[in-house]
């Protein structure tokens, strides 16, 4: 198939591109390199350094390459930035997504699979692991944008019959993750510990997250791109791990002797989160294959270089 991967020079997108190429697909990448890196771009892919907010260029690329399916990973994904600059967040995450769907329906694209976000969409919740049926009450412009993307996807399915899968990721980690972003607590811990730099933990470190390994997220994307599931699906492990646990495992794996320093908890930060993956398991038999210990081992090895 001819597949467009937006954000294909980024952490998750570049892993998806590699897997699609290994499976024999023709892959086209659109990425503006705002956080993506050229050395992550698979040389067998056709790469366009382009912005998804540029509707004309997006349409031209989709038309020229006769794209059949789109895997949309490009995003403004910094929650704090979305609070500081909601217009920019909406421009990239909402308008950029509309540009893709508009080009999709004009050029006969069959399906769009895109990265949504479990944590950001459900907001604070006591129901853990959280199922897809949970009310969506995002408390950031980023979360609102991800939810709006899902609503647009439903609209394009209803009116133009473009299939879609919204994959609501939990906290994704693994090799290639950027250490600059706020999402990458594991990437930050691993790189700092390997450099023997002090590690800071917000609050007491007993807050939990659902850490899912990038290869499992790739598998969910490939299954969604080639299968026939339509709608929103969580991609997580249903397991809650504390930040302190993550620190201890990485500390051990990296043979580090750096200390952790607890600093003030971030205001409004979610205390606990984990996503139920029952829906994805029941529909396509997806389950997370990599446990935290072995995923962290692969991550630390990659950061060791
Ligand atoms: N990493 C996580 O834990 C996590 C959790 C939930 C959802 N997500 C979603 O997964 C997707 C991929 O995230 P990632 O962790 O790989 O981040 P990333 O920053 O590594 O990848 C995003 C890519 O999109 C590109 N990009 C950003 N704005 C663009 C624009 N306007 N035009 C073209 N390209 C643009 C960046 O250059 C980058 O290569 C995002 O949609 C994100 O919202 C990630």
Notes on the protein architecture:
With 305 residues, this protein is an alpha/beta fold. The chain has two domains: 193 residues, NAD(P)-binding Rossmann-like Domain (Rossmann fold), CATH 3.40.50; 92 residues, UDP-galactose 4-epimerase, domain 1. The protein is built from eleven helices and 13 strands. Strand 1, helix 1 and strand 2 form a beta-alpha-beta unit. The chain is globular and about 55 Å long. It starts with a strand and ends with a helix. 47% of the residues are buried. The mean pLDDT is 96. The chain binds nicotinamide-adenine-dinucleotide. The site of nicotinamide-adenine-dinucleotide has 31 residues, from helix 1, strand 2, helix 4, strand 5 and strand 7.
Give the SSE map.
Blueprint: E1 2-6, H1 11-22, E2 26-31, E3 46-49, H2 55-64, E4 69-72, H3 79-84, H4 86-106, E5 111-117, H5 118-122, H6 141-160, E6 163-169, E7 171-173, H7 185-194, E8 199-202, E9 208-209, E10 211-213, H8 214-226, E11 231-235, E12 241-242, H9 243-253, E13 260-263, H10 278-284, H11 292-304
Parallel strand pairs: 1-2, 1-4, 2-3, 4-5, 5-6, 6-11, 7-10, 8-13
Antiparallel strand pairs: 9-12
Nicotinamide-adenine-dinucleotide binds next to helix 1, strand 2, helix 4, strand 5 and strand 7.
Under CATH, the homologous superfamily of the largest domain reads NAD(P)-binding Rossmann-like Domain
Q: Which H/E pattern describes the elements?
A: EHEEHEHHEHHEEHEEEHEEHEHH
Biggest sheet: strand arrangement: 3-2-1-4-5-6-11
Largest sheet: 7 strands, parallel
Tally of distinct domains: 2
Number of strands: 13
For the record, the CATH architecture of the largest domain stands as: 3-Layer(aba) Sandwich
Percent helix range: 40-55%
Structural class: alpha/beta
CA(first)-CA(last) distance? 34 Å
Name the shape in a single word.
globular
């Amino acid at each position: 198939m001819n597949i467009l991967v937006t954000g294909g020079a980024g952490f998750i997108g570049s892993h998806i591109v590699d897997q699609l190429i290994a499976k024999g697909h023709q892959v086209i990448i659109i990425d503006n390199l705002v956080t993506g890196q050229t050395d992550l771009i698979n040389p067998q892919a056709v790469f366009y350094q382009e912005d998804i907010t540029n509707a004309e260029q997006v349409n031209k690329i989709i038309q020229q390459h006769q794209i059949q399916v789109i895997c949309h990973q490009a995003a403004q994904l910094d929650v704090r930035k979305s609070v500081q600059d909601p217009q920019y967040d909406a421009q990239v995450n909402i308008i950029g997504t509309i540009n893709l769907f508009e080009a999709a329906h004009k050029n006969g694209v069959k399906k769009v699979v895109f990265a949504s976000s479990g944590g950001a969409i459900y907001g604070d919740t006591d129901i853990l692991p959280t199922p897809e049926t949970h009310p969506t009450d995002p408390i950031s412009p980023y979360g609102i944008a991800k939810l709006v993307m899902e609503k647009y996807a439903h609209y394009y399915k209803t009116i133009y019959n473009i299939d879609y899968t919204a994959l609501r990721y939990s906290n994704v980690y693994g090799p290639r993750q950027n250490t600059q972003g706020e999402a990458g607590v594991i990437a930050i811990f691993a790189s700092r510990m390997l450099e023997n730099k002090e590690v800071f933990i917000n609050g007491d470190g007993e807050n939990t997250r659902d850490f899912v390994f990038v290869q499992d997220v790739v598998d969910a994307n490939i299954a969604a791109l080639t299968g026939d599931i339509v709608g929103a699906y969580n991609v997580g492990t249903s397991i809650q791990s504390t930040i302190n646990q993550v620190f201890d495992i990485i500390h051990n794996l990296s043979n580090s002797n750096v200390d952790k320093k607890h600093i003030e908890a971030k205001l409004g930060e979610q205390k606990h989160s984990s996503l139920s993956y029952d829906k994805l398991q029941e529909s396509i038999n997806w389950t997370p294959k990599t446990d935290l210990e072995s995923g962290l081992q692969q991550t630390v090895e990659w950061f060791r270089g």
